[in-house]
Amino acid sequence: MLFILFAGFAATASAHIASWNKGMYCKGGNETGIDNQNTNLAVDPLYDLEYEQWWQQRVRGCHLMPPPDGEFLELPAGKAFKTELANNRAFTTLSYDGELVSQWQDGKERNMPWRGVGNPPDCLMSNPDGAGGELHARSLETVGGTAWAISYESDIDLVNMTNLVVFSIHYFSPFFRETWYDVPADLPPCPEEGCYCAWLWIPDGCGQPNMYMQNHRCKVTGSTSTRRLGTPKPPVYCEDDLSKCTKGPKQMMAWNQASGNNVAAPNGKTPTYNQRMGFLPGAQNDIFVD
Ligand SMILES: *[C@@H]1O[C@H](CO)[C@@H](O)[C@H](O)[C@H]1NC(C)=O
Ligand SMILES: *[C@@H]1O[C@H](CO)[C@@H](O)[C@H](O)[C@H]1NC(C)=O
């Protein structure tokens, strides 16, 4: 019965990707009092929106849908944490006792290498009928890369572009469901009420040139660090000239919005969370002031 339900769902999905894990906002959708196990609200992309709309997914009210009290995404200092990247909560272990999960973001089974066919290869589609291009990619090698940023403001309304610092990068993602992100060893502990974290992605082509910013309540574990994060600067496109890359702490990237953009790329290029914009893979250890 579950199978029939989700076969029907997948056929109509115009889905993308979110990070499903403890501490996320909009985990059960955006209707108060309803914990929807079959929600894809948090995966909706952000495109051509005013700052007040795209910032923290306010356009769909996700800033108002926090996780339960006391629930955090835990960031183990100097280690890595696992998240599940999927096009719907149904295809993660957060729903249906994990009965619908596979190695992939859509609960389907397929073998590696998963590549588009042709030359240049086609965009990857979840379904044979061409629907479900949620990865916006042609192969593992061409996915745009994803990122996490942290703000030490516990109050989501006090988070802004200059206190939100990118601290982890995963180049070859989103691709598989289970994805691990490295945490800088020197990340200091959060206030008791927690920190704010954002999952971030700018896909590299294959569909609408949009972006993703997803809210979380997080905390750093296993840290006694007293180091402080510097004030982040906007990343700069530097694929052809590494000397142009922004050094040190970097802001999240806002791109292709109606207002609030902070990065640019040459015509036909996308500012992705990888070397192109000056981000090295893994923990960002250059974000501290001292
Ligand atoms: C919930 O999300 C839907 C779809 O994006 C949106 O139309 C609606 O306004 C949102 N509700 C709130 C309370 O923001
Ligand atoms: C962002 O918030 C910090 C406090 O965390 C504040 O000092 C700073 O002025 C704010 N920046 C902007 C641009 O509002």
Description:
The protein is mainly beta. The protein contains two helices and nine strands. The chain has a six-stranded mixed beta sheet, with no helix packed on it. The longest helix has 11 residues, at 2-12. The structure holds 2-acetamido-2-deoxy-beta-D-glucopyranose (2 copies).
Report the biggest beta sheet as strand number plus sense, adding barrel if it closes: 6 strands, mixed
Q: Would you report the number of β strands?
A: 9
| Separation of the first and last Cα atoms | 57 Å
Mean pLDDT: 93
Question: Could you spell the SSE succession in H and E letters?
Answer: HEHEEEEEEEE
Helix content: under 10%
Blueprint (SSEs and pairs):
Blueprint lengths: L1 H11 L5 E3 L30 H4 L18 E4 L3 E7 L59 E6 L13 E6 L7 E5 L12 E7 L10 E10 L60 E2 L7
The structure holds 2-acetamido-2-deoxy-beta-D-glucopyranose (2 copies).
Short description:
Its main location: secreted. This protein has helices at residues 2-12, 51-54; strands at residues 18-20, 73-76, 80-86, 146-151, 165-170, 178-182, 195-201, 212-221, 282-283.
Keywords for this entry:
signal, secreted, 9 strands, 17% strand, three-stranded antiparallel sheet, 2 helices, monooxygenase activity, mainly beta, 290 residues, binds 2-acetamido-2-deoxy-beta-D-glucopyranose, Proteophosphoglycan ppg4, oxidoreductase, disordered N terminus
